[in-house]
Structures are given as C-alpha cells and as structure tokens.
Design brief:
The chain has 172 residues and is mostly helical. 66% of the residues lie in helices and 5% in strands. Strands 1-2 form a two-stranded antiparallel ribbon.
Length: 172
C-alpha cells in the first residue's frame, strides 16, 4: 500500500557532511579496486594490444591511474551525491529515519558507474597511451564497481550519520 505525502512526513534531509563521508569511504574501496584491476589488465591484456610490459612500468601506470582518480572521483562523487540528495524519488521516512529503496540504490549505481567508468577510461588512456587497454580497464571496472558500489549504497542506507533528525529540517 502506497502512502501519500499527506499521511507520511517528508524524509529527513541529507547533509553535505554525509555526502563527503560517503565520497571518502567509496574512494578508499574504489582506489584499491582500480589499482588492482589496472595492474591486472596492463600486465595480462596489455601485450595483446601491443603494449610492451615492463613490470615496474605497469605498477607505475596502475598507481598513476588510481592516485589521480582519488582527486577526480572525489569531486565527481560529491557532485553526484548532492544531485541525488535533491531528488526525492525512492526515499521515505520510517520511524523518523530516512530510508532509501533498492531501486533508488540501483539507479544511483547505474548513473555513478557511467560517470566513473568514463573518467577511469580517460585516465587509463592518458597514462597508458593505449586506447584498447584503457577501454579494457574501464569496461572491466564496470562489473567490479557495480557490485562494490551497490553494496556500499546498501550499507550507507543503514547509517544515519548526516541525516537531519527532524523530517524536513534543513541540513548543511
């Protein structure tokens, strides 16, 4: 049974501090995944695309991709979170707590993954100089990161940090 807004109070607001905390926690997970995935792709698929493999060079390129992503992804993720914080779809209030539906988590996962994989592909191309290797890294990342991000979203949907105590209250 669907409740109308007349019978249900609006969900509590999300603070910018919560968005920043989610950005940091996701970046830790995402950076490790990118480093490992980049190293594996450059090492094992790179030669198939004509890239000469020098193992010290491989670790350096994978590290550059992962470290640069720390900056680009933190900014992109924060903007993504703030955008979704303004959209009320899939959000409800249950016992005064903000609740997010699985469909909302799925939609956020898909939109974030499109933005983030494009960023990774561009960075991988820049640091490897090989478009095929970059597309492989970005393409494989879609699979690993979709799974990791969905569970990250579900975990954060249970955490009340940065959620205004009173429904409808404004937060920073």
């Amino acid at each position: 049974m669907k409740c109308t807004s007349a019978t249900n109070p609006p969900p509590p607001k999300v603070s910018a501090k919560r968005s920043a905390a989610k950005a940091v926690s996701w970046r830790i997970i995402g950076t490790f995944d990118t480093l490992l995935l980049s190293w594996l792709v450059i090492t094992y698929l790179g030669p198939l695309f004509g890239r000469q493999v020098d193992h010290s060079d491989v670790l350096q390129a994978a590290t550059y991709i992962a470290v640069t992503e720390v900056v680009t992804k933190m900014v992109l993720y924060f903007v993504h979170e703030r955008g979704w914080a303004r959209i009320g779809w899939g959000v409800s209030s249950e016992s005064g707590k903000r609740k997010q539906s699985g469909w909302r988590s799925t939609s956020k996962t898909a939109t974030w993954r499109m933005i983030a994989s494009l960023d990774t592909t561009l960075l991988a191309w820049f640091f490897t100089g090989n478009l095929a290797t970059a597309i492989s890294i970005g393409g494989l990342e879609v699979i690993t990161k979709l799974i990791l991000y969905f569970f990250h979203e579900r975990a954060w949907s249970r955490i009340q940090y940065g959620i205004a105590n009173k429904p409808g209250a404004h937060s920073a």
